[in-house]
Amino acid sequence: MSYIAILGRQPALGTAELERTYGGKAVTPISLQSVIIDCEDFEIQRFGGVLKAGKIITELQPSNWRQVSQRIVQLYSDKWSSFEGKITLGISVYDFVVSNREVQQAGIILKQKLKKHNVSLRLIPNSDPTLSTATSHHNKLGLSPNKVELIIVRTREGKIYIAESTGSQNITAYAERDQERPKRDAFVGMLPPKLAQIMINLACGQLKPEEGRKLVVLDPFCGTGVIPQEAVLMGHAAYGTDLSEKMVEYSHANIEWLEKVYHKEFDYKFSHGDAMTNKWQQPINAVVAETYLGQPFSAPPSPAKLEEVVKNCDHIITEFLRNLGTQIKPGTPVCIAVPAWRNKEGRFTHLPITSIIARFGYKPHEFTNISQNDLLYYREDQVVARELLVLTRV
Ligand SMILES: C[S@@+](CC[C@H](N)C(=O)[O-])C[C@H]1O[C@@H](n2cnc3c(N)ncnc32)[C@H](O)[C@@H]1O
Questions:
Q1: Among 13, 110, 300, 356, which is 20 to 30 Å from 389 by CA?
Q2: Can you spell out the DSSP letters for 145-160?
Q3: Mutation choice for ligand 1 from 247, 272, 313, CB with most ligand atoms inside 8 A
Q4: Atom number in ligand 1 closest to CA 188
């Protein structure tokens, strides 16, 4: 089966998590914002970097939008001519220069054709050629046979794929997990749940748990517990430790809240410990952590201040990796977010450890379609970016 995935704001992150899950050969970038995935089944809610996904129905090599529009009308007026009940349709066009009116027009022609067969179609208005994830999600498009979103993507080579959505990101659930947790801490900084999912996939994507067991995901800088929270929701067991007793309590309280919200009992444990010296309990199948990021900055710091913060973070993270390396088995995957600081020109200062990681017994993962350097997560107004390191203990 082939699926198209529409990727989020930083497409490299989505490409990376898909590659780690399905293998580099199964993932093919086709445009700036989308990839094709060859897989049996695609469960969008596991992937923080994917906005929408759809099963590919057909492909064509058109010279203009009119041909695409005619094909859609022909395909779906045939398919739905004897449909029982009302159909809701949304159309989203990616990487094709076309106006929202032209997109809408295709839907209107289809609606008129179906009307002749007494089939009623509700067309979702396009204020843009692409429906927002929120619109797709709130209209439950792709989640039942009568709620359809056509995802139309133009590839770099000018080919067109028409796919039927199988769902979009559940932004309501993400917002709830992010904002309604009882314990939050602005200073510790909160990792968005989507990014936690991406990181868990980057580490665990290729791992298969032993029969009847769960993978144990260790987060040695667990803070308020976003990574443990997403790990248990993805079916893993979470093991979090943190230097701060308060953070250990917060992680506990948040995951207990999550159990209530999801009416489930999760598998987790938390304890207090310094990541530079702690002895963790075994087994550990994967390590996923947003490490210490230094203090937050609202503007780029002075060179002296930057030097001090870089040194401090580098020390903690280097000692952590050294300590961890003595306790995890060869082959254990590690995905950590470490700080990188952006200056006014948008250039980054990286932690010295990132260029000498091999000396500590870790091998960076080689991706097929992206480079490790693309794995930087930040917003335009942020000074401290998160650089994702995807490593394997050698
Ligand atoms: C950027 S925050 C992680 C936030 C976390 N991802 C969350 O969901 O809230 C870094 C965490 O590292 C902890 N920390 C700092 N130094 C540490 C050390 N040496 N060992 C363990 N934890 C440490 C801090 O207490 C803080 O909770």
A1: 300
A2: TTEEEEEEEE-TTS-E
A3: 247
A4: 2
DSSP letter at 294 equals -
List ligand 1's pocket residues with C-beta within 6 A.
Answer: 188-191, 220-221, 223-227, 242-244, 247, 274-276, 290, 292-293, 316
- How remote is the CA of residue 150 from the centroid of ligand 1, in Å? 43
**Domain 173-393: CATH superfamily, name plus number:** Vaccinia Virus protein VP39 (3.40.50.150)
Which ligand 1 atom lies nearest to the CA of residue 278? 20
For every one of its 394 residues, what pLDDT tens digit does the chain have, with 9 covering 90 and above?
A: 999 999 999 999 999 999 999 999 999 999 999 999 999 999 999 999 999 999 999 999 988 999 999 999 999 999 999 999 999 999 999 999 999 999 999 999 999 999 999 999 999 999 999 999 999 999 999 999 999 999 999 999 999 999 999 999 999 999 999 999 999 987 777 899 999 999 999 999 989 888 889 999 999 999 999 999 999 999 999 999 999 999 999 999 999 999 999 999 999 999 999 999 999 999 999 999 999 999 999 999 999 999 999 999 999 999 999 999 999 999 999 999 999 999 999 999 999 999 999 999 999 999 999 998 899 999 888 999 999 999 999 9
Under a CB-based contact definition with an 8 Å cutoff, are residues 394 and 363 in contact?
A: yes
CA–centroid distance, 52 to ligand 1, in Å, is 32
Q: Is 20 left (phi over 0), alpha (psi -120 to 50) or beta?
A: alpha
Write the burial class of residue 269 (CB in 10 Å: 0-12 exposed, 13-18 middle, 19+ buried). Answer: middle
- Shortest-distance Cα residue to atom 8 of ligand 1: 226
What CATH number matches the domain at 2-169, 3.30.2130.30, 3.30.413.10, 3.40.630.30, 2.40.100.20?
Answer: 3.30.2130.30
